[in-house]
Amino acid sequence: MGNTKTELRSKYKSLRKQLSENDIEEMSLTIANQLLKLDIWDKNYFHVFLPIAEHQEVDTELILHLLSGKDKEILISKSDFETRKMTHYLLTDNTKIKKNEYNIPEPVDGIEVPSQKIEVVFVPLLAFDKKGHRVGYGKGFYDKFLSECQSGTIKIGLSFFEAEEKIDDLHEADMPLNYCVTPNSIYTFN
């Protein structure tokens, strides 16, 4: 089995399918607790993805609780599938969230915040390697979004599984992570 993005995508999609709801809940909790060890809590603007339940993604609800408990500004996005652009909105008590046609929970509207203001981004992924490169769903939304952020923005991947040695077919537009957090490990990349 090679390590091209296509091969890794199918490998990790099938590994995720084997996870029970209970596994996901427990591992997501462990990941949220691991985040407390990172040196990110002096920042204010945090971008969080809302999980696509059908894809067995890391449940970020606990991360949202951590952030709101620490009085952070939380941003969530709306994705435009034609332009591959993400627009970020402040999550407040009044935010209405609705699933789009791809089952991605999104804010209906709200106060927009530019990518340049965001200091920490929690990045969804299917797989990642020991150099901090990730395999996403292949739509390019996050690479585009991360390229709009400041160079100092902290990019943190969240994964149920450990790192692969390397991804064979990297692309110049791929934005590497600063950290990746799994239930068992915290990977730091330079």
In short:
The chain has four helices and twelve strands, in the order ααβαββββββββαβββ. With 190 residues, it is an alpha/beta fold. The protein has one domain (5-122, 138-188): Rossmann fold (3-Layer(aba) Sandwich), CATH 3.40.50.10420.
What radius of gyration results from the CA coordinates? Answer: 16 Å
Order of strands across the widest beta sheet? 6-3-2-1-7-10-11-12
Distance between the termini: 28 Å
Please name the fourth-level CATH homologous superfamily: NagB/RpiA/CoA transferase-like
Structural class: alpha/beta
* Fraction in beta strands: 15-25%
CATH architecture group name: 3-Layer(aba) Sandwich
Total count of domains: 1
Question: How many strands appear in the DSSP assignment?
Answer: 12
Could you estimate the helical fraction of the residues in percent? 10-25%
Biggest sheet descriptor: 8 strands, mixed
Low-confidence stretches: none
- What is the approximate shape? globular
Q: Provide the residue-averaged pLDDT.
A: 95
CATH topology: Rossmann fold
Number of helices: 4
Would you write up a description of this structure?
The structure is a single chain. A hairpin with a 4-residue loop joins strand 11 (179-181) and strand 12. The two termini are 28 Å apart. The protein has helices at residues 5-17, 21-35, 61-69, 141-148; strands spanning 45-47, 73-80, 85-90, 97-99, 105-107, 112-113, 120-124, 127-128, 134-135, 154-158, 179-181, 186-188. It is globular and about 45 Å long. The model has no long low-confidence stretch (mean pLDDT 95). The chain is α/β, with parallel strands linked by helices and 190 residues long. It has an 8-stranded mixed β-sheet, sandwiched between helices. It has a two-stranded antiparallel ribbon with strand order 4-5. Strands 8-9 form a two-stranded antiparallel ribbon. The protein has a single domain, classed as 3-Layer(aba) Sandwich (Rossmann fold). The chain is built from 4 helices and 12 strands. Its cofactor is Mg(2+). Belongs to the 5-formyltetrahydrofolate cyclo-ligase family. Keywords: ATP-binding, Magnesium, Metal-binding, Nucleotide-binding. It catalyses: (6S)-5-formyl-5,6,7,8-tetrahydrofolate + ATP = (6R)-5,10-methenyltetrahydrofolate + ADP + phosphate. This is 5-formyltetrahydrofolate cyclo-ligase.
